[in-house]
Design brief:
Blueprint: H1 3-11, H2 15-32, H3 38-52
Length: 64
């Protein structure tokens, strides 16, 4: 089992909180770099949210 699989298992049911944490970490990086890498940070945030399932709305059915 990979580290990412273990993290996903721990975060199951807490996707919204994981998304908030990813946003907060990205904002901190943007603050420290004065927005120099904001496009890269945004891309990383989006990919992490997809991996953790934090990008899904509760109203939408899960994607297969």
């Amino acid at each position: 089992m990979s580290a990412l699989d273990k993290i996903k298992k721990m975060l199951k049911g807490h996707e919204d909180q994981a998304g908030k944490g990813v946003d907060k970490a990205g904002d901190m990086i943007d603050d420290r770099t004065h927005g120099k890498y904001s496009k890269h940070v945004d891309t990383g945030q989006d990919k992490l949210k997809q991996q953790f399932g934090a990008d899904r709305n509760q109203d939408e059915p899960p994607r297969s």
